[in-house]
Design a protein that fits this description.
By secondary structure, the chain is an alpha/beta fold. 37% of the residues lie in helices and 20% in strands. The chain contains four helices and four strands. It has a four-stranded parallel sheet. The protein is globular.
């Protein structure tokens, strides 16, 4: 009896459609990774983002200039992924959506007035 049930289960499983699920379409957003894209960490983040978004740019935070220049530089981005301290590089009231990672990214958010610590 157990053998019969096992064979029925195996046959039912084999009869199922075994096509792999279709890959997800990339999300139609322009994402800019701001950090050190030359490091293994930066390269890994950029590779991950490129899998999931239609447009990804890597920006070396050390190359950023004055706040007005940076605001203009990021004008085409939908989202910034901040992996650097951009304090002093973004204008007051800068309003692009940001995902901050690492302590350096948190410094950027706090410099713009975000509260990311204990209330």
């Amino acid at each position: 009896m157990l053998t019969t049930l096992s064979l029925l289960f195996a046959a039912a499983f084999a009869a199922q459609d075994t096509d792999a699920p279709a890959a997800l379409e990339p999300i139609a957003l322009t994402v800019e990774y701001v950090g050190d894209p030359a490091t293994p960490r930066g390269k890994a983040f950029v590779a991950l983002l490129e899998e999931h978004f239609t447009s990804v740019e890597a920006v070396d935070a050390k190359q950023l200039g004055a706040p007005a220049d940076s605001a203009q530089r990021f004008a085409g981005a939908d989202v910034l992924l901040v992996d650097a301290d951009l304090t002093g590089h973004l204008p007051d009231g800068y309003g692009k959506p940001m995902v901050v990672i690492s302590g350096l990214g948190v410094r950027t958010a706090e410099g713009l007035g975000a509260k990311l610590d204990w209330l």
